[in-house]
């Protein structure tokens, strides 16, 4: 099973935004509340959402990061990002000052997944985790999420990789049979590039998503039996093949459509 539709709706967003500048320490000591000795890397905008606005998902709490007596939502955002740079949301109770950092969202099957409690206060989420026409998908069995976008252009492996990189992502990682089902559905039975190749070292297939090697279990779960087989010693990149709906190695200069993936904080769908 898969969940395609993102439950984060604009109608559920209240017109309240918090923009936080994210800094990178360039030299020496940098005070967490000032920009001295720091360079601005980017800014994040957090949107106030109602619990119904994220259905069917739940906040992905960083339980070790809870703070008390925080004076404002802005300070909560700053503290969350300082302690957890990957954080893309938080819960804040203005009455008690309780601040609970979030990675972002997770599905109902994830460990400890539960709704917003009254004591936790208001939910704020970074609004652009899935943007630029990327859609939010869920691996239902684990509650893990992924941002995916199917592109209509047919390009070679290198060109497709460059496009994904330009959106802050990579060619889709397909490590499980459940993720394979998602990609099959998204591609409507067509062939697609997958972010896996052995171009650096023959026979050692590496995932673009995290730099890890293909495991025997992954190979068994998502590849056609007997693949990858490097026919004529020229097949070094991996595709979802339309005829078999399994992964298969192929020549990297071939042109295919492709799916890009952007990481969801804390998720490995």
From TrEMBL:
Protein name: C-type lectin domain-containing protein
InterPro entries for this protein: C-type_lectin-like, C-type_lectin-like/link_sf, C-type_lectin_CS, Ca-Dep_Lectins_ImmuneDev, CTDL_fold
Top-rank lineage group of the source organism: Eukaryota
Transmembrane segment boundaries: none
Alphabetized Pfam families for the sequence: Lectin_C
Gene3D superfamilies linked to this entry: Mannose-Binding Protein A, subunit A
Residue ranges of domain C-type lectin in the record: 147-261
Species whose genome carries this gene: Plakobranchus ocellatus
Signal peptide: none
Keywords per UniProt: Disulfide bond
SUPFAM superfamilies reported for this sequence: C-type lectin-like
């Amino acid at each position: 099973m898969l969940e395609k539709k993102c439950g984060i709706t604009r109608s559920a967003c209240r017109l309240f935004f918090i923009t936080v500048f994210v800094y990178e320490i360039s030299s020496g000591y940098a005070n967490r509340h000032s920009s001295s000795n720091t360079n601005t890397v980017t800014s994040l905008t957090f949107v106030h959402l109602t619990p119904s606005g994220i259905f069917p998902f739940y906040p992905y709490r960083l339980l070790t990061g809870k703070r008390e007596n925080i004076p404002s939502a802005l300070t909560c955002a700053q503290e969350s990002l300082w302690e957890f740079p990957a954080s893309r949301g938080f819960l804040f109770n203005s009455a008690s000052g309780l601040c609970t950092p979030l990675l972002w969202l997770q599905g109902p099957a994830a460990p400890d997944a539960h709704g917003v409690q009254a004591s936790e206060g208001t939910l704020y989420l970074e609004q652009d985790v899935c943007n630029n026409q990327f859609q939010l998908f869920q691996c239902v069995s684990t509650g893990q999420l992924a941002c995916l976008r199917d592109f209509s252009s047919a390009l070679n492996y290198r060109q497709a990789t460059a496009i994904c990189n330009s959106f802050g992502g990579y060619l889709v990682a397909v490590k499980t049979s459940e993720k394979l089902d998602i990609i099959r559905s998204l591609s409507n039975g067509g062939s697609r590039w997958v972010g896996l190749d052995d171009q650096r070292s023959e026979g050692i297939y590496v995932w673009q998503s995290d730099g890890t090697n293909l495991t025997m279990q992954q190979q068994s779960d998502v590849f056609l039996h007997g693949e990858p087989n490097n026919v004529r010693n020229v097949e070094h990149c991996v595709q979802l093949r339309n005829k078999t709906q399994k992964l298969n190695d192929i020549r990297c200069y071939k042109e295919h459509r492709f799916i890009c993936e952007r990481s969801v904080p804390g998720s490995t769908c």
